[in-house]
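thread: overnight batch results

M.L. [08:02]
morning all. the overnight job finished for the chain we discussed friday. pasting input first so we're all looking at the same thing
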Amino acid sequence: MASGSRLQINFERLLDVCEKQATASCESSNWRLKKFVEDLQKKLTLLNKESCNKAHPEVLKDYERRVGVLQGILLAEDQGSPGDKLKVVQTIPFFKQTSIKANILETGPASAPDVLQHAKAKFSSQSRQALLGEGDGLRQRGGVSADTTESELDSVLSHHEKQQERLAEDMVNMARNMKDHARVASRIVKEDTKRLEDTNKLADSNYSQLKIESARLEEHTKKSNCWMLLLLIFIIIVFVWTVIFMKVFHKPRI
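M.L. [08:03]
and the structure it wrote out:
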């Protein structure tokens, strides 16, 4: 065993036990694995906070990734259907385990990538059996060959792929139609906006012309009023002179 603190050594031993249990096919020990992983997380927190810790930073990152793999497997185990379990375990990032020998146990378990591959293979098998409807009762029939099973699996997967492609094509067409409708609506709005602007310009122009014509009409009205006043004065003068003339030069009586 390489040199290291007692906390690190205990952590590596517990990590060894957890990875062995994770690769085991027995599901009844999942509750024990959950407790171990919780203890691993606590020890890992202490390792990161330990002031005298001599562990290499890459080794600590390796510990975190390996614990993350175990947590992801436990999360997948909590899912209901095999398909959901497979989806969860496929989201766990794959990584290469560090090869720094100064801070890890020399006699360790299977590496974390192997544990992850084992979990993926396990859940893939469960999902395939659920997809094909293969339970214990179907196994007892014994009338289906391996080639037939693979052929049925390929046909089912091909059917699902075609459905996904059709769905993706429908979504693309829908997005294209929405884009076309949005473009047409935008063009209509622009045209209506332009018409409104032209109408406003025409209204402004008509208002300006109306003001000019009103000013001209007012000027003509003033001029006509002056001429009417002069004509009225002239008529009054003529009338007055006519009356005076008639008074002065009246007809003599015979």
